[in-house]
Amino acid sequence: MDKIFIVKSKQTDVYKNLALETLMLDFAEKEGDVALLFLWENDKTVVIGKNQNPYSECDVEQCIQDEVKIARRITGGGAVYHSFGNLNFSFILPKKYSKEDSFRILLNSLAQNGVQAKLSGRNDILYDGKKFSGNAYRIKKQAFLHHGTILFNIDKKSVSKYLTPNKIKFADKSVKSVKSRIVNLAEIAPNLKLSILEESIINYFLGVFKKEKTEVFHNFEPDELEFQKLYEKFSSSGWIYSKFKNSLNPSIKLLHGILEYDKNSNTLLSDALEVELIDEVNKILANDDSPYLKILALKQNVNFDKNLIDEIAEFLKNIV
After folding, report:
1. Is the pLDDT of residue 167 over 80?
2. 38 compared with 171, residue with greater pLDDT
3. Which CATH architecture has domain 3-234?
4. Does the pTM exceed 0.85?
5. In terms of C-beta density within 10 A (0-12 exposed, 13-18 middle, 19 or more buried), how is residue 73 classed?
6. E-state strands within 95-236
7. When comparing pLDDT for 289 and 200, which is higher?
8. Parts of the chain belonging to CATH 3.30.930.10
9. Which among 26, 14, 20 has a CA at the least distance from the CA of 72?
10. What is the rounded average pLDDT for all residues in the chain?
């Protein structure tokens, strides 16, 4: 690895942190053999996946009333609640590595501090069956982003207050709410400090990627104009709310996540992690009145999950 960046954000504004993360990913895409670790915290915020409807995922009016920000990220997955006591991490690596490498760093860091956790489902890290970390990904030509959250000592009542997930999410689970299926690390390891966990993650990251001639940087200076442009994008109502309205939409739960069709905007919504595929489907919906066969034709792309394409096509077949 030529260069490593270990960056702890000084910002608690989610829009600034998302802008900085995006510029780091763009930098890695251009530079090639670089690895970046970004650790950050946000003040009260609901963060939704790229292809989600904020009105379906959170109580928008309550968020506005309580000055809780709503943000849309560039990756798939579901909605999460951020506040102090929630550690966000971003691994940005060359494409020759994979999420298994970054997950190994997380699990080893946790184990070093007495937390024997395991991966579960599409993107969760669990302890004794309860979730304390959700993860999502974005893959580019040369680099990829793996980011996620670690619930350290978050107010679980706030999670339930602001998040309003689709009820079918819990249809086949013994738990019936977000609050009842999550756990804080502070409950598992009461003596563990957030700063200690951060140092463990940093040390394991360096242990994996630092070589004899690797340069290590502890600051990342973005282009100010590009940063401002992205900040304005992430904080804009057009990006956050898009063209969605507070409405009930047809939805179905599948292996890859929940699919929802918004008739008002003719848009497929989903918490699926395959964000690039959902984006391609929405391009077809925007330009074709009979999209079924064109959606099935996406199976020619080797990067897309063929089973998910079949599921999407069948879901939309009798709706669009």
Report:
1. no
2. 38
3. 2-Layer Sandwich (3.30)
4. yes
5. buried
6. 118-120, 124-127, 130-139, 143-151, 215-217
7. 200
8. 3-234
9. 14
10. 92
